[in-house]
Amino acid sequence: MDPEALLFSIFTPEGRDNPYPALAELRRTEPIHYNAAFDTYFLTRYTDCQAVLTHPGFLVPDLDWCAREVPDWRDHPSADFFYSSMLRSNGADHARLRRLVGGGFSPRRVAALRHTVRDITARLLDDFADATSEGGSVNFQELVGYPLPVAVIGHLIGVPDGEQGQFHRLGQDAGRILEPVRSPEDWQRADRAVVALRAYFAELIALRRARPADDLTSILLAVRDADDGRLTGTELVDTLLLVLVAGFETTASLLGLAVHALLAHRDQWELIAAAPELAPQAVEETLRWDTPVQMTERVAAAPIDVAGVTVPEGANVTTVLAAANRDPQRHPDPDMFDIRRTDIKVLGFSAGPHYCLGAALARVEGAELLEQLPKRFPALAAAGPPLRRESISLRAFENLPLITRG
């Protein structure tokens, strides 16, 4: 197949189920592929993707980019939120926001959350045990995969337990803005969700101003009210919104992908059941083998050479993380899922200035689940084929039916 056909094949239902053979062939035949239809350079080698993500001359598409490329962006609250956020800012603005928010994800704070993550995981697995006690199958994503990161990120932000249920749907809808190609329905869903979440977080901020607590909202309020490094009111609201959406969507995807991969490789499931200390390595291998975030974009601020190809100023570049993490030049036998693999270096949380602030917390959640789940349900098995979400950028399950055998 020619490079264009290979690329488009990954957007078909079959390609969404398993994009890796096509990506491997694209990496072998044309690892830096310019596609006119998408007007972007697709990169599929690990070294090239890492170089772009860490190069200061490659910027994320920001509000200036949005104003050029999305003329009606002012009509979309989700575009205003997304392209003004820390995720889509560059230079001094990005450094300022990241420095102010970073305290909420410090090693000390993540370490302090470990007991909370453990307790939430145990409680959700109690619910899972009850739901499967009579031998029927249940949707793991609905009972555990989504509730776990929603509860953890809700605890971090300071959202009361009883108010967290709404965030699954609203977070998913707001996340439609992350898709590289958005339909009118995507825009409508994202816009409605952003409006609702902005209103919710404005109320939460007012509550925390009156009654501070040990949570991220109170931390950012203190920053907002300080004399230096001030956050605007809109930045405060939108930062909490970003932490919610980014904090549970990719982690929920990771949890489902990890469980599915282990159950599909029964020897690996039995290995982690016998040696739960391998849970952190199983998380890393999942991030490498079945990357939740498939690809991410950058824009060249000047003409820049990438492995002998000159990327023009203003050109779009898409780093295909799913292909990079399976590059045999970085990870030998890349199609083998092996939780004992060593020297894993993944780009699943990006790299460089935009390396994910919540990466450590996501790893803690994944490791805790993979430590507890095989202990409690050693005979856990798939109850049927999973249903994947219709998404280009995010690899996730809508339904992961599982059954406990005894």
From TrEMBL:
Q: Is-annotated flag, keyword rRNA-binding?
A: no
Give one GO term, molecular function aspect. Answer: iron ion binding
The record ties this protein, via Gene3D superfamilies, to: Cytochrome P450
* Keyword annotations of the record: Heme, Iron, Metal-binding, Monooxygenase, Oxidoreductase
Recorded hits in InterPro entries, A to Z, give: Cyt_P450 (IPR001128), Cyt_P450_B (IPR002397), Cyt_P450_CS (IPR017972), Cyt_P450_sf (IPR036396)
SUPFAM superfamilies assigned: Cytochrome P450
Give the PANTHER family listed for this entry.
CYTOCHROME P450 YJIB-RELATED, P450, PUTATIVE (EUROFUNG)-RELATED
- Family, per the entry? Belongs to the cytochrome P450 family.
Q: What is the protein name given in its UniProt record?
A: Cytochrome P450
Organism equals: Streptomyces tsukubensis
Q: What is the lineage of its organism?
A: Bacteria, Bacillati, Actinomycetota, Actinomycetes, Kitasatosporales
